[in-house]
Amino acid sequence: MAVKQQEVETLKEAISQFNVSSSELTESYGLLQKEVQELKGKLRESQLEEARLREEAERNHRLAAVGEMAAKMAHELRNPLGSIELFSSLLQKEVSKFSDEPQKREWGKHLSSAIKTMDTTITNLLMFTRQPKAEFRKVDLNHVIADLFAFLGHRLQQNNIEIEINTRTLLEPVHCDEDLIKQALLNLVLNAIDAMPNGGHLCIKTFTQGNKGQKQMVIQCSDTGTGISAENYSKIFDPFYTTKKTGFGLGLAISQNAIAAHQGVIRVDQKADQGTCFSILFPIFREQQSCKKMQA
């Protein structure tokens, strides 16, 4: 009996050890399954990342080819366009001598406006073909904005758009690249004009924000136009993406690159009532910082 009791105890101990081992194996199997699932997930992510990188490389290759072609086309078009602009200005001067020819003067304005639009398109094409580098110098943004609206005056009048300019807080010149800022702002204003085919209100506002060590320049361009639909919101800065019947869809992409060259960003906010507000933000550099950046 003692032997049988001992055998029973041994069997119980063996079963207990088996249960413990079985539980440990089940736990280990669960952990192994979890690791396998994590590895599968990482593999899928790796495959997706590889596919994304491959697609991005192909896209960049296509963009490079398109950019090279665009640069050649732009240079070919700019020469005859310069001649057209010259003769257009001469014709307008001649017509302006005759006070009884208002219609012809209006034709001259239309021609000049069309030439400016073409020149802007060509400039966008040329800027798209190269990554812009900011050349910093002291710039009076008040003059930049005033020149911009003088340049677009006829088109704004044609589209029955009221202008509001609020730059009273901008008292000192800012270190930036005047040409890049002007081009970025021009593209935003042209988009705003296109968004208000039946007229509206366009407001440009400038101010600074942040503390003394990390000040930012802010230029806001807001309109009362048609706004941006939810499905287009994430695509508006993509090259060649446009919802308009005309144009290449490069304006906002170029504006973004121009501001990125200033270590800044462009933000867009859908207004609560109607329209859109774009904000250009870039750090205000001191002169010595700007010089170092140009030399880098």
Q: What's the layout of helices and strands?
A:
Blueprint: H1 2-95, H2 102-128, E1 137-139, H3 141-151, H4 153-158, E2 161-166, E3 174-176, H5 178-194, E4 200-209, E5 216-223, H6 251-260, E6 265-270, E7 276-283, H7 287-295
Parallel strand pairs: 2-4
Antiparallel strand pairs: 1-3, 4-5, 5-7, 6-7
Helix pairs in contact: 1-2, 3-5, 5-6
Could you please describe the fold and organization of this structure?
The structure is a single chain. The protein folds into two domains: 1-130; 137-295, 2-Layer Sandwich (Heat Shock Protein 90). It is elongated and about 130 Å long. With 296 residues, it is α+β, with helices and mostly antiparallel strands. The chain has a five-stranded mixed sheet with strand order 2-4-5-7-6. A two-stranded antiparallel ribbon has the order 1-3. Strand 4 and strand 5 form a beta hairpin. It has helices at residues 2-95, 102-128, 141-151, 153-158, 178-194, 251-260, 287-295, and strands at 137-139, 161-166, 174-176, 200-209, 216-223, 265-270, 276-283. Helix 1 (2-95) runs antiparallel to helix 2, helix 3 packs across helix 5 and helix 5 packs antiparallel against helix 6. It has seven helices and seven strands, in the order ααβααββαββαββα. Helices cover 59% and strands 15% of the residues. The relative contact order is 0.09.
Structural class: alpha+beta
End-to-end Cα distance: 94 Å
The count of domains is: 2
Instruction: Point out poorly predicted stretches.
Output: 288-296
Average pLDDT rating: 77
Order of helices and strands: HHEHHEEHEEHEEH
Largest sheet: 5 strands, mixed
- What is the CATH superfamily classification of the largest domain? Histidine kinase-like ATPase, C-terminal domain
What is the CATH architecture annotation of the largest domain?
A: 2-Layer Sandwich
Radius of gyration: 32 Å
Q: How would the global form be characterised?
A: elongated
Could you tell me the CATH topology label of the largest domain: Heat Shock Protein 90
Indicate the CATH class of the largest domain. Alpha Beta
Overall strand count = 7
Percent strand: 5-15%
Strand order of the largest sheet: 2-4-5-7-6
Helix content: 55-70%
